[in-house]
Amino acid sequence: MKVYQITYPEIPDTAGDSFSVAAGFFDGIHRGHQKVIRHALEAARNEGLTPAVMTFDPHPSAVLGNREGVTYITPMEQKIEILRNMGIEAVFVIRFTKAFASMTPGEFVDSYVKGIGIRHITTGFDFTFGKFGKGTPDDLERLADGAYEVSVIGKVEDHGEKISSTRIRQLLAEGEVEEAARLLGRPLMTDGTVVEGDKRGRLIGFPTANVNPADGSCLPAPGVYAVYFEWDGNRYPGVLNAGYRPTFKDPDKTSLSVEVHLIGFDGDLYGKQARILWMDRIREERRFDGVEALKEQIGRDKEEAEKRLSGLSGS
After folding, report:
1. What distances in angstroms separate CA 16 from CA 40, 90, 118, 144, one per listed residue?
2. Buried (b) or exposed (e) across 45-80, using 16+ Cβ within 10 A?
3. Which one of 35, 111, 137, 178 is CB 3.0 to 4.6 Å from 152, fit for a cystine?
């Protein structure tokens, strides 16, 4: 796969290649996004074009809304991995800046549609582009002048409601990871590095891998979850606590911790790059009156995680 990192006013050299492109931000690459991307793949096959995706980084709200700490259901590296697995052969990642956002719809089409050899562009019905987001799929068609074709994919619904990144974020904020996975078409995945913790889990009989999530990761609500834990081609079931460890509350520590007890594994994972697949929420996080009560609950959580994972698929 070829990944073009583009900063306005740069136009990548794609001489000799022609593309069928799915265009959008595609955070989560959920089932609605997948329909857009698969249409671009089908058009590429039918018309002898290279299947591609055009996306943007960072999220426009981080630039135009001056929002700090914007998180992503699929951070860019993960997004590119998913697209590769779908069969996409080129990704255009346009750096979203105020200068890029100031382009008129016509300037955007001239530079980043006609200018890079797009012969077929597929978007969702609500795709916007250009200054103030005033460009619409109708404008893409109006500005084509025969240089490219446009396909517009309508709203994809589930139970009468649009499948959207916003809806999935709300589910994650409520801890509803299983329902979020249904709309995504896969479990939420969080990539990160295993770091050294306070080893308190080992002392109480439940050693944990403490994971530092990749920057910008969108995490579910605090609580206890049944998960799969992957590293170096290995996968283990696990029980995860995401939260602030109220039983051992340190008033100087306010950041969310992500700790996974791996079922059937005992070893050193420090420094490993790992992936968490969030499968199901077991309960909310709560404080216990002492270590013994906590140990008993963790034992029950472990049994519950094994039970739930036995009925779920991690792929």
Report:
1. 19, 14, 12, 20
2. eeeebbbbbbbbbbbbeebeeeeeeeebbbbbebbb
3. 137
- CA dihedral (227, 189, 243, 195) positive or negative: positive
pTM of the model: 0.92
Q: Does domain 187-310 have CATH number 2.40.30.30?
A: yes
Fold of the 2-161 domain: Rossmann fold (3.40.50)
Contact indicator for 256, 243 with CB cutoff of 8 Å:
yes
For the record, the structure tokens of 56 come out as 């943007």
How far apart are alpha carbons 277 and 218 in whole angstroms?
A: 13
Place of tokens 């077929």: 120
Q: Which residues are bridge partners to 312 per DSSP?
A: none
Give pLDDT tens digits along the chain (315 positions).
Answer: 999 999 999 999 999 999 999 999 999 999 999 999 999 999 999 999 999 999 999 999 899 887 778 999 999 999 999 999 999 999 999 999 999 999 999 999 999 999 999 999 999 999 999 999 999 999 999 999 999 999 999 999 999 999 999 999 999 999 999 999 999 999 999 999 999 866 555 545 688 999 999 999 999 999 999 999 999 999 999 999 999 765 545 555 556 899 999 999 988 899 999 999 999 999 998 887 767 888 888 899 999 999 999 977 544
In the numeric block, the tokens 């050899």 are attached to 117
Query: Where in the chain are the domains?
Result: 2-161, 187-310
